[in-house]
Amino acid sequence: MTGEPKVRTVLGDIEPAELGVTNSHDHLFFASKLLPGQELDDPTAAAEALLDFKARGGSALVQWTPYGLTRRTRELAWISREIGAHVVAATGLHRAEHYAPAILARVIDGLAREFVADLTEGTQPADLPDEPRTGPRAGLIKVAGAFHTIDSHARLTMTAAAVAHEETGAPIAVHLELGTAALETAELLCGKLGVPADRVILGHLNRNPDVRIQREIAETGVFLGFDGPSRANHATDWRLFDGLEALVEAGHGGRILLGGDTTTAAALTQPGPSYLLTTLAPRLTEVLGGDVVTAMLVANPARAFATSWPA
After folding, report:
1. How far is 289 from 247, CA to CA, in rounded Å?
2. Does residue 93 surpass a pLDDT of 60?
3. How many angstroms separate the CA atoms of 63 and 71, rounded?
4. Rounded distance, CA 201 to CA 305, Å?
5. Residue 76: inside a domain
6. Per-residue b/e over 56-73, b at no fewer than 16 CB within 10 Å?
7. Rg (CA), the chain
8. What is the pTM assigned to this prediction?
9. Is residue 59 part of a domain?
10. How many domains does the chain have?
11. Strand 172-175, strand 12-14: pairing
12. What residue ranges in the chain does DSSP mark as E strands?
């Protein structure tokens, strides 16, 4: 990799400082057979959600939808340009349960090449039904673990992600199923596969609100994703503040990222990506202070999503 670190958005590379107030994990487009009838596949609704996020003070949104799940990169670019907000797209693969068998019939080398092509040229496999073969370039690799373990599919995709990272420097974002297997994931990616810890983002840590484990995860040096903080029907949601406060007190505030993770059509509008700024950030500011929360929304994402991309 050469040159100064840049954030790769759907409209091109930008300086990290340009990213601004960032929703570090969300979805404007997402469709899976696991969520029938809740597809996020409406460009107008996506544009309205991003416009509202910008009106509330937001500057950038990182979409963690990997290919094969209707990420709509061309529409993302159009919306980003029209709204005037930065958008980062993902390559990668989600959990196996989201896909038809044909999409999963890949080996590590082939999958890594697909990730690299998507990151450097905007090219994806021809057998994916939901998008044209070329479009804007992805800016991160999204993979996923299984519940309390790293199954064979997760090991395949994480290994391919590590190979693609070595070639491109791209950050790797990991869906942790209900927040589990975080330490195992860090050990695989950062230990066995040699990915630098500051190139790894572990998501959904709020879904497994064990403060002691969260501290152990933070000590590995990875970025810590706390996302989807609006699910009032989840028993874990109310513990978010205690977990974040404990991490900040332990000196790990510089590794925390915040995101909305709205994955359904209903969630896109209520509460929507703007919940992060209208509700969560003010409440966190009362507990942690404005400088700490600003770092979670601005400085931390600027480091997490920037890399020295190959020329």
Report:
1. 14
2. yes
3. 8
4. 9
5. yes
6. bebbbbbbbbbbbbbbbb
7. 17
8. 0.96
9. yes
10. 1
11. unpaired
12. 6-9, 12-14, 22-26, 60-63, 86-88, 90-92, 140-144, 172-175, 200-203, 223-227, 256-259, 306-307
For CA atoms 201, 202, 207, 211, the dihedral sign is negative
pLDDT over threshold 80, residue 150: yes
pLDDT digits (tens, 9 = 90+) for 257-309: 999 999 888 888 878 899 999 999 999 999 999 999 999 999 999 999 999 99
130 pLDDT tier (thresholds 50, 70, 90)? low
Does residue 293 fall inside a structural domain?
Answer: yes
The CATH code of the domain that includes 224 is: 3.20.20.140
Q: What is the mean pLDDT of residues 103-127?
A: 87
The pLDDT value given to residue 237: 75
Task: Quote the strand ranges of 19-79, DSSP E.
Answer: 22-26, 60-63
Q: Pick the closest to residue 138 from 172, 188, 105, 186 (CA basis).
A: 172
pLDDT one-digit tens code per residue, 134-143 = 889 999 999 9
Residue 154 lies in a domain: yes
CB-count exposure of residue 270 (10 Å: 0-12, 13-18, 19+):
exposed
> What confidence score (pLDDT) does residue 268 get?
82
Which pLDDT score, from 0 to 100, does residue 155 have?
Answer: 97
Show the CA angle centred on residue 104, arms to residues 100 and 109, nearest 5°.
160
Round to the nearest angstrom and report the end-to-end CA distance of the chain: 7
What range defines the domain where residue 21 resides?
Answer: 6-307
Structure tokens at 263: 């994955």
From residue 130, alpha-carbon distances to 22, 74, 113, 193 in Å are 27, 12, 20, 31
How long a stretch of residues is the chain? 311
Which residue carries 């990151």 as its tokens? Answer: 119
